[in-house]
Amino acid sequence: MSGSIQDTFFEECEELLEATDEGLTAIEGGNHDPEVVNAVFRAVHSIKGGAGAFGLDELVAFAHRFETVFDEVRANRLELEPKLIQLLLRSSDHLCDLVATARDGGETDEAHHNMLIAALDEYIPEEEEDLTFEPMGLGAPGGFAPAAIDIPAAPTEETYRIRFHPMKEMYGTGNEPFFLFQALKELGELEIKLDDTELPGFDAIDVAESYLAWDLVLTSTEPRDKIEAVFEFVEGLCELSIEGDGDAEADAAALEALNAAFGVAPSAEDGDAAPAPFDQPAPAPAADAGPAPAVDASADKAPAPKADTAKAEQRGGPKPTLRVELERVDRLINAVGELIINHSMLAQQIANLDVADMRDVETELEGFKNLARDIQEGVMSIRAQPVKPLFQRMARIVREASSATGKTCKLVTEGENTEVDKTVIERLSDPLTHILRNAVDHGIEKPEDRESAGKGKVGEIKLTASHRSGSVCIEIKDDGAGVNRPRVKQIAIDKGLIPENAELTDSEIDNLLFLPGFSTAKEVSNLSGRGVGMDVVKNAVTGLGGRINISSAPGKGSTFTIILPLTLAVMDGMVVSVADQTMVVPITSIVETMRGSDDMINNLGADGTLLSIRGNFVPVCDVAGALGLEKQDDQPPGVYLLVETETGQRSALAVDDIHDQRQVVIKSLDGVCGEIAGVAAATILGDGKIAMILDPESIIAASPSAAAFDTERRMNNAVAS
Amino acid sequence: MKTKVLAIDDSRTIRNLLAATLEEAGFEYHCAVDGREGVDMYPEVAPDVVITDINMPNLDGFGVIEELRGEGINSKVPILVLTTESAADMKARARNAGATGWITKPFDDASLIFALKRVTGAAA
């Protein structure tokens, strides 16, 4: 089987698993609409169908059980009660695992697998329990109960006399005797003799009636079942007899098996044929009635799919989509990045030209710039995906974490259609998982504790995504106990992370959680990981150019806020000069800018300086100093960029001058040089020069002023309290 | 002239499998992603044979057969149903709606071609 088709299958599985999860979540939320149930059934069914094609037997067997239970629900023979819904959710999770195992290798938890199978089997009525999925190729049609047919192993030539008399119903199904004969011909020598003796006089002919029959003689080395297989589609629609050389006994057995398989014989219940799923009585035994009983039985059920159909027609279909390889999009993004750089260069060179009236050129250039931006936004939006699948996976994390800790929690999601860059979504999965596990493990209280605190037994974790002024905001809010600040502080002191006499604000204590190696669990639990703390989460978020913040209210819960850039490729930056170097500061981190004057500066201790802004003091951070650059002259910094850190602290970055504000293309420094404190990435400017993109956070962290200012403030706090 | 197949299945995997097998075997392959699209495409494609899945959104396989065989289109072309169920009940129901035959999933190349041969005579 071609690898690419299998790739498609796994890609499609992802979508189908999402659909399953989405449907089940809706069902869990009380939406038992038949269309929702149908959608889940279809998704699981499609997974089974595809998996069968690739011989993924374990997946097929499990999907089949899952689907069968859902079929019971669909037929209103099973009620969607909470216990069943929980089982279905866990089965959906397991189905995910099985798909992942089939794709990536590895092993699934066998005990869990067997436990789920046993649990699902309890919902499957006994007559449906023959769940051996028949890999029924048409070469050996399952309908024929092959066990009853004794096939000689050696290919000996045999002569078969075949009598074939179609009923008039056969012609309504699009079956043509001629094509059947053609297929027979490929099995051996075929003599065809038409029997038109039943044909009445010309006047008496009823065009809808079937008068013709054929007597065929086939000499073939093929086994008998191959010949029967040719007539598979017309079983019950014709009178058919196939007589081999002698062996009348085998004929009778085969015919009986054939009839049994097709539900026309009285022994239908004992036969190997799969039972009728609709609880319909076995069709009455009638040797010459043909398909009539089956017709009546299914006619009763016919309105059901019609109703579905009508409903489906009312809904608007999904918007047409185009599947494109990610690589092609990324090539385009790169090209757009180059285009933006190219524009900058062009603009610069035109500005350098000594031309008197450049208004026309500038207008055109402005148009160029706007178009480039439109293209860039358009391309970015191709990479953007809704966070919905990510959020859906998180529901599972919360479920698993809840059952592991014996707590009851539910995840409420909002803003699922918020679109975020694909890479961001992929790399957000681990941090989110960690935060959510932490929320369940440490945030949400045990049910009895919640009750005594006057809260509902079920803890709620709310996961929200939204766009906020050029950034994406992901918020994880729990209604648990909030950060236990005295304990957090004590742990930080015990671990030597802060000095014993440290005076910290509430927010500072909360942010201690992000320090490396911090773990508040009394015992290291399996759940939140071992030694892996929130610092890893923070690194992952900052690695995406984002920020994470925590706020907490004792007894009411905690909120983690993650702010991420919309894209990883282009950003708005302020071009500044520092010690004769051109650098870029991300606009998103700048609160305001101001020209400095001497009377605004206050010295603090040996190294520190403070900037007085409208009566407030903020520490000044000398960018050149922090980066270890030597200034050519002794000019005081001309401009201050007021920036705000994650914790809400403000600092003023001192730079020499501001040149421009523009879009810059982010070029990663990975692989070019190691990590440089204070530098996040690089970009290419209009003049073709490389400029570093600064990371204000780490510059401030390295600045002596900020540290001195902190100490000062704490001392003041100590005095005040 | 190539035998024209219209395949209707909501599963991309199955469509790809069908396409690979049928095109290699020399059939002209057209496909639709659900029953509604399949019925809509039918007049334009004018296939020699239709292969349709049963469980699909926006008109299921039974609906496809009913509409194709119904008075509006009144198609006489062979219709093969793709089904994972080998249950006699499912076949009877499809046949009652006017299906010509069935292909049980998972199918292999030989059984697919054999099924097509029996309903179209195509020696592809």
Please specify the SSE layout and strand pairing.
The complex is a heterodimer of chains A (721) and B (124).
Chain A: H1 3-28, H2 34-53, H3 57-74, H4 82-104, H5 110-121, E1 158-166, H6 168-171, H7 177-185, E2 188-195, E3 213-220, H8 224-230, E4 238-243, H9 248-261, H10 292-301, H11 303-314, H12 326-352, H13 359-383, E5 384-386, H14 388-405, E6 409-414, E7 419-421, H15 422-443, H16 447-452, E8 459-468, E9 471-478, H17 485-494, H18 506-511, H19 534-543, E10 547-553, E11 557-565, E12 570-578, E13 581-586, E14 590-595, E15 601-604, E16 608-613, E17 616-622, H20 623-626, E18 639-644, E19 650-655, E20 657-665, E21 679-684, E22 690-694, H21 696-701, H22 704-720
Helix pairs in contact in A: 1-2, 1-4, 2-3, 3-4, 4-5, 12-13, 14-15, 15-19
Chain B: E1 4-8, H1 12-24, E2 28-32, H2 35-45, E3 49-53, H3 61-69, E4 79-83, H4 88-97, E5 101-104, H5 109-120
Parallel strand pairs in B: 1-2, 1-3, 3-4, 4-5
The gyration radius over C-alpha positions of chain A equals 37 Å
Overall number of strands of chain A: 22
Name of the CATH superfamily of chain B: Response regulator
Q: Work out the helicity level of chain B.
A: 40-55%
Alpha-beta classification of chain B: alpha/beta
Describe what is shown at a glance:
The complex is a heterodimer of chains A (721) and B (124). Helix content of chain A is 42%, strand content 20%.
